[in-house]
Amino acid sequence: MSAQQRPIVAIDGPAGAGKSTVAKAVSERLGYVYVDTGAMYRAVALGCIRRGVEIEDEQAASEIAAGIGIEFAPADNGGQLTLMDGVDVSRAIREHEVSDAASRVSAHPRVREQMVARQREMGQCGGVVMEGRDIQTNVFPDAEVKVYLRASIEERARRRARDLRERGLDVPSREELERSIAERDERDATRGTAPMAAADDAVIIDTDDLTIEQVVETVVVLVRQRQGEASDG
To answer: What is the CATH number of the domain that holds 38?
Structure first.
């Protein structure tokens, strides 16, 4: 990385570890582009559901992935909208059914190949905060800043319930949420293509007992340190 080039910030971790909230805040602090790769897989899953495509059918799911347009746009409240074929699906992709389907559809190698190509194009010039499950190990293994967030299943279930409630969506029982999260962790960590894992050189942050601002500040400091090293070099 040259002294003038802004780094790629790769933030990975399991569902509910705080990736989206932290990545959004870091991108705002630094003036970087924010890319939610999980929303991309959720959009593919939603496309499959709406078109009556079986999630386990890799060929059909990959055709959906190839055919839909996925874009991000600023929301009026300062957040980010996810658009599928030009239509705002930000709320729909957060439904519990879609969350589960996204984990399964993301395990298909042909679906991942298409999404990873799009993600690399989005981040190739740097100055991007990209979050997901395989950004620092697969999408951008040479990212200048690699962070892996983790939290207990109990804490992640609490956060998921709060998020669904705030969005006005149905909230499953705590037991169902914890079971769903554990099953998703298992699928994501054991899939044959780009399994979820922390890179050997990633900074691992346990978020259970930290505030969002504390985690954000830690990541921002890492980015600035890396930029300083590039300048000194």
So the answer is: 3.40.50.300
Count other Cβ atoms within 10 Å, centred on residue 189.
12
Per residue in 21-59, pLDDT (tens digit) is 999 999 999 999 999 999 999 999 999 999 999 999 999
Asked if residue 195 is part of any domain, the answer here is yes
pLDDT in tens, 162-174: 988 998 888 999 9
* 8 A C-beta contact, residue 68 and residue 62: no
Please report, for residues 54, 71, 125, 225, the alpha-carbon distance to residue 15 in angstroms, rounded to integers and kept in the order given: 23, 22, 27, 28
- Domain annotation covers residue 2: no
Q: For the chain, how many structural domains are there in total?
A: 1
Domain coverage including residue 167: 8-232
pTM: 0.86
Quick check: is 149 in a domain? yes
* Residue 98 to residues 105, 106, 148, 165, 206, Cα–Cα distance (Å): 10, 12, 24, 16, 27
Q: What type of residue is 41?
A: Y
Cβ(18)–Cβ(149) below 8 Å: yes
Give the residue ranges of DSSP H helices in 128-173: 153-166
Identify the DSSP state of 89.
Answer: -
DSSP 11: E
Q: pLDDT tens digits for 147-199?
A: 999 999 999 999 999 988 998 888 999 999 999 999 989 999 998 888 999 99
Residue 66 covered by a domain:
yes
